[in-house]
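Re: the 360-residue chain
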Amino acid sequence: MGLLRLNSKIVITKDNEVDVYTLNNYINGIEHNTSVEDLTDTAKVIFPYSGKFKGRNLFSGENPLFEIGDNIKIYSGYYPNLYLRFNGWISAISAKTPIEVSCQDHMFQLKNSNITYPQKRITYYYGRTKTGKISKKPLKKPRVIGEAITLRELLEYCLGDEWDLECPDVNLGHVLFTNVSIAKVLDILKEKYGLYSRFRDDKLVVGFQQDATQSNTYQYEFNKAVPWGIIDDSDLEWQLAKNVPIKVVAKLMGMNNTFEEVTVGDTDGAQRTLHFYWDGVTLPKPDIKKLAEEELTSRRYDGYRGSFETFGYYPIVAGDIVNLKSKKFPERDGNYSVTSVHEKLGMEGIRQVIEIGNKA
């Protein structure tokens, strides 16, 4: 494999969307983190000690090159390739040198946009029995809830026409939000309904964990001197399903703080906990045992587990698929979902530590 030459570009766009500044190969380092479990993708850019670019202050004094709230696009690759790795907003600027600029993806804007839903509210003075009938005993504290709404209706209410959206049109039942950020709404959707959210290609994608991504597939090879070769596989293990003890715990939270819980799998296995919510009014009650058994099946397989390091040739993010190939053990070739990526650009070029999840 020949010498890989690093290539980078930073593009800053001001609020007026007219002033755009491009910094080619003018960084000390970049870090980029993405995970299917995290609502927000983050990045950090380290600029040279001088704090200037072509005689202009980067962030201090009058009319700085960039400020908190500016849009930032980060491109990098090995020459002649230059991929968009991150598109988001400057969220913080350090006061130390060299200058570190912290960035968040489009969730940064949703964290700073509050909503209240709905304006009309419903008050329940009686709860329901275990059989679903209305109780004759009044609640000690009347329960105030919002109108019934679907996921799509709620997200369209939150986002308006500002963002592209992809989501299933599932029924959420009655929801109630009072002056909370849109990002907090997305957090609640994950905690209560198991609905995950993330931005992909400037589109907000919301769905159940395996559906909340739009996957690209990238190939990586063991013991081969190619840009997409695996540098370090010491944290990657091959395991047989029969030798992997796993326990899945499914918890269901209902109205009036009631809880149900089931456990399937091996009592001494690594635990995976699932959370579900049922409002007791409109949503069908989840079959948590069936859902736990499906999760158990998806996690028991013959294959790789762990993480590996590579050159960062591809612009891979969490939710993508990796195709792992081995000339020595071709029977082990297979596709795996990516759960997280830690990407670092510096003197050694671009390096990625990719953590994999279930077989895809």
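The two ends are 30 Å apart (CA to CA).
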